[in-house]
Amino acid sequence: MEKILVGLKRVVDYNVRVRVKSDGSGVETDGVKMSINPFDEIALEEALRMKERGDASEVIVVSIGATEAQQQLRTGLAMGADRAILIESSGELDPLRVARIFKALVDREDADLVLLGKQAIDDDNNQMGQMLAAIWGRPQATFASRIELNGNTARVTREVDAGLETNEIDLPGVITVDLRLNEPRYVKLPDIMKAKKKPMDVIPLAELDVEGGPAIRELTYEAPATRERGIMVDDVAGLVAALKDRGLI
Amino acid sequence: MSKILVIAEHDGVMLNPSTAKTVSCASKIDGAEIDVVVFASSAKEIAGQAAALQSVTRVLTVERQENEHAVAAVLAPQIVVLCEGYSHVFGPSTTFGRDLMPQVAALLGVNQISDIMSVLSSHSFKRPVYAGNAILTVEAPVDQIVVATVRTASYAASGTGNSAPVSTTNVDAELPTHTRFVDLQSGATDRPDLQTANKVVSGGRALGSSENFEIIYKLADKLGAGVGASRAAVDAGYVPNEMQVGQTGKIIAPDLYIAIGISGAIQHLTGIKDAGTIVAINKDEEAPIFEVADIGLAGDLFSIVPELTDAL
Lengths: 249, 312
Ligand SMILES: Cc1cc2nc3c(=O)[nH]c(=O)nc-3n(C[C@H](O)[C@H](O)[C@H](O)COP(=O)(O)OP(=O)(O)OC[C@H]3O[C@@H](n4cnc5c(N)ncnc54)[C@H](O)[C@@H]3O)c2cc1C
Ligand SMILES: Nc1ncnc2c1ncn2[C@@H]1O[C@H](COP(=O)(O)O)[C@@H](O)[C@H]1O
Known about the structure:
The structure holds 2 protein chains of 2 kinds.
Chain A: E1 3-7, E2 10-12, E3 34-36, H1 38-52, E4 58-65, H2 69-79, E5 83-88, H3 95-109, E6 113-117, H4 128-136, E7 140-150, E8 153-160, E9 163-170, E10 173-177, H5 189-195, E11 200-204, E12 217-222, E13 231-233, H6 236-245
Parallel strand pairs in A: 1-4, 1-6, 4-5, 5-11, 6-10, 7-10
Antiparallel strand pairs in A: 2-3, 7-8, 8-9
Chain B: E1 3-7, H1 17-26, E2 33-40, H2 44-51, E3 56-63, H3 72-82, E4 88-92, H4 95-108, E5 112-116, E6 118-121, E7 124-129, E8 134-139, E9 146-150, E10 166-168, E11 179-185, E12 199-203, H5 214-223, E13 226-229, H6 231-235, E14 256-260, H7 266-269, E15 277-282, H8 289-292, E16 295-298, H9 301-311
Adenosine monophosphate (AMP) is lined by residues 7-9, 37, 39-40, 43, 62-65, 95, 98, 116-117, 119-120, 123, 125-129 of chain A.
């Protein structure tokens, strides 16, 4: 296999307690820690392992978004990716457009495999990989917890509601990854220095001729209903009584 | 008027309860006419179950060999042909629906709405984002087909007793062979299904081993409850992945949820915020799970859980 494309989305770090802005226009991002979407880090780790095993020759990390996403791409390069592509855009991007941009890059790079996260933890859409596979007309294997490459096919174990499903796909194709696939490596300081010299292509979105789908308008953001702290009981007898009280046992 | 096509989820024999919940969501759209489509190699049984659901107008079946264990790449092109004339296509936000529906949307050239939790009108909906830390109201364009998944935990299953007409349809679509189903391994149990059980008992990292997890099963069996787990317990190999509750596991809404030796990380709480009563058992009085628990008991689970099981 020649090339693997890996999507790295810049998102609010998963440890941040996200707060809705008072005017309902979005969530607070000022001064908030931003990171690589955790699933994408796992996708990258898997791509790097494929390359290290000799199953691929080049790993390219791709982000679509603001200039600042260069930080996350640099981290990806420090982890071991060979080069990076940023499709720079300051505005909102609908998922279909992101998928079409990936399709354009797949064509341009002649990629054999696209590894993505199963979902971005900001919009929680869980769509992009599936959309890309559909418009590319190539296989998808979503929610991967194990990937076995055998030449031109891949055997993928998928975490589905009923258990573990195995699919075999012909390559090229799209695989979206789940958390248990691997544990991403830590970046070491010398790697960060080395990463500075690795190539990063910054391409303004306008240079690609890619349209979005009909927009789904975001009207307002609101905080979710919160649950109140309830009562503490002292012992099992108290617990049983409280459950009986509520008619639960 | 809204004409809604619901994609049935099933295992080849039984209709998955997610379908009744998706129908229930669709029925919240005023004056909706709801058709359910069953893709299968043999659809009769499943179609009968779908026809019994309240609010369903018609059931369509598409029987062909390729629809046995059909993957998204096989179903999506058939749905695209079939949804002509419909204003909405809905699937459940289970792994089945999440795998499939974005393909349908992309082939139709529209964006998808994920995880509808509330219907405001035929084209405006609420959905959770940021692991449920924010609720977003969205509005889909009225001149386009709406493709969406339904957050099943937000809806009670549509009742039964209906007898909607069932008709067989042929769909002319070219189907790819590039993606092949190999097998499904599930730790099938006799216990109530996690996603539909009225009561669920979950264990966390504190259980320490799969042997120790037995005390969770014993309590669950006494209560007639389904069994869940935190991601930490799954990662540590105490239980299989399909038992994980939370943002990246199952989103559930039982009447009673008992969290045992689970700290209450935000990603776990996302999965249980619609539960009726949350009970927490944890030795750390400061554990975040107590902030959302209706009934808390601080102490060592290894003495509390057996004692509770005996007391029931
Ligand atoms: C992107 C992402 C997605 C995630 N998705 C999920 C998800 O879907 N579901 C999920 O659960 N997690 C998820 N997580 C992980 C989550 O952040 C937590 O790490 C996880 O929920 C912790 O599991 P736990 O509560 O079992 O373990 P811990 O946090 O280690 O908590 C163990 C608890 O047990 C208590 N305890 C220890 N010994 C005893 C004893 N003898 N008696 C009583 N109590 C005891 C401790 O006080 C502690 O509170 C996700 C994380 C990320 C980054
Ligand atoms: N703007 C983006 N830049 C890079 N990758 C993205 C972007 N949006 C989505 N992806 C990839 O697609 C996956 C699924 O995203 P989503 O469908 O938005 O939940 C993510 O985990 C990323 O791998």
